[in-house]
Sequence to fold (297 residues):
Amino acid sequence: MIYKTNFQSTSNMEEFFGDTGEKISFRCQYSTGDNLRGSLFPWHWHSAFEIDLVTGCDIRFDFEGTSLNISQGNAVFINSQKIHSYQPENSVKYKTYAFLFEPLFLAGQYNGEIFQKYIIPIMNSDISGLEIPASDPAFACIKEIIYLAEEEPEYFEIQIRIQLEKLWCMILEKVKSEKVKAPVYKEDSERMKQMLNYIHSHYAEKLSLEKIASAASVGIRECSRCFSRSIRQSPMNYVNQYRVQMALELLMTTGYTITEISEMCGFSSVSYFGKVFRQYTSATPVQYRAQLEKLDY
Fold:
């Protein structure tokens, strides 16, 4: 089965999959464009490896310090534990088929020979993502896995595992040949996880650069440099973007007033909330809610 899903994450920005947020070994899912949610997708990470087949429009996948522009009809591999986000060229037309699998799904057991020889080298590499064009032999495995997950023929679980093993061998070869420049600031990744975790847990409160920096035990200048190097945003710009993401969810799923949502998402005033909201959605909160009512969302 292929599940339709919207992005969900835990408070420390780790994406989870499944209706109750449980960790599962393998999951195939698809996401489609939504003109109500727009194109705001939070930075996040997960322990699972991820492979996305991009359709509908091109999508830019952002990683710490780098990006991959994936054309529709191609695919991308996303490494375990790597912070990432994505930006569709068209927030309504995009569609992705994604399958995610935990390292244990391939390795069988932690610290076994397969895990040590073939899984750990990828996880510990400096590669965040790899493009897999439609002309690549690995692409045929991706298409077959999606077909098996959707149609569920007899023994499909075993067949998916076989295709994943073939695909993993090809990824290993791609990693060998890929020339990846190691990031200059390797400590940024852990710092970013700590600071983003703090923002995601305290966005409803009054936040300052000093508070965000203290979450990673760095000064405010290093905090700003870390954000700039990693996600190419200032800390406070990211705070506003995340607050708008949370406001979108409240507008879509609750009956709270605009004033209440503004306060719940940490904005200093309703007028400032409206200004920031419009920057990211091209609509005011009132206009956005009117769209929802027209569509009976």
Summary: The chain has a mean pLDDT of 86. Residues 262 and 272 are 9 Å apart (CA to CA).
